[in-house]
Design a protein that fits this description.
The protein is an alpha+beta fold. It has one domain (19-160): Nucleoside Triphosphate Pyrophosphohydrolase. Helices cover 15% and strands 39% of the residues. The chain is built from two helices and ten strands; from the N terminus they run βββββαββββαβ. The protein has helices at 72-84, 151-163; strands spanning 19-21, 31-40, 47-53, 59-60, 63-65, 86-97, 102-105, 111-126, 134-141, 168-169. Strands 1, 2, 5, 6, 7, 8 and 10 form a seven-stranded mixed sheet that branches. A hairpin with a 5-residue loop joins β3 (47-53) and β4.
């Protein structure tokens, strides 16, 4: 199943999106947050695992913010399992995304500029499933990502494809 396209230039979807891109009306970030994104690819690197977020209906790589007393690797494995049902082992750090164009606004004083560690991982168990954070899960061709894929996620996937086994920095 596919989602419809982007609905606004400053927000990813009409629902309460927390992601903002070059939005002059967005409050300035109060801190940097550390997050993860996980690329689980089928053999040949032609398809990647994406999930459709329940909070704003956008498509994204599995991942999220690192919790206290948690390593970035632990966060990546936890978020992947929580959002998709997939159990994986981390293969390598594929890259780092720290664009100043992306702001996460969770309301109140929780406005941050994220630094996202991107991991490449291999699925070793579990099964694809929807969760309270996810409405759809599936593998998509890297050249045909679904409409509604978050812009920074598109950049991450394009960089991963272009750089192959080299690391990328955005």
């Amino acid at each position: 199943m596919r989602s419809s396209g982007l609905r606004s230039t400053s927000q990813v979807a009409t629902m309460a999106s927390i992601f903002r891109y070059r939005d002059p009306g967005c409050r300035p970030p109060g801190f940097r947050s550390l997050g993860t994104a996980v690329i689980v690819a089928e053999p040949g690197r032609r398809t990647v695992l994406l999930h459709r977020r329940a909070d704003d209906a956008s498509w994204s790589l599995p991942g999220g913010l690192v919790e206290l007393a948690e390593s970035v690797e632990q966060c990546a494995v936890r978020e992947l399992r929580e959002e998709t049902g997939v159990v994986a082992t981390i293969d390598r750090i594929a890259g780092l995304h720290s664009s100043t164009d992306l702001i996460i606004d969770r309301g109140g004083d929780r406005v941050s500029q994220p630094c996202i560690v991107v991991f490449e991982a291999t699925a070793v168990g579990g099964c694809l499933r929807c969760t309270d954070e996810t409405t759809e899960v599936g593998y998509f061709p890297v050249t045909q990502l679904p409409a509604g894929t978050l812009p920074h996620i598109r950049n991450i996937i394009e960089s991963w494809v272009r750089c192959g086994t080299s690391q990328f920095f955005l």
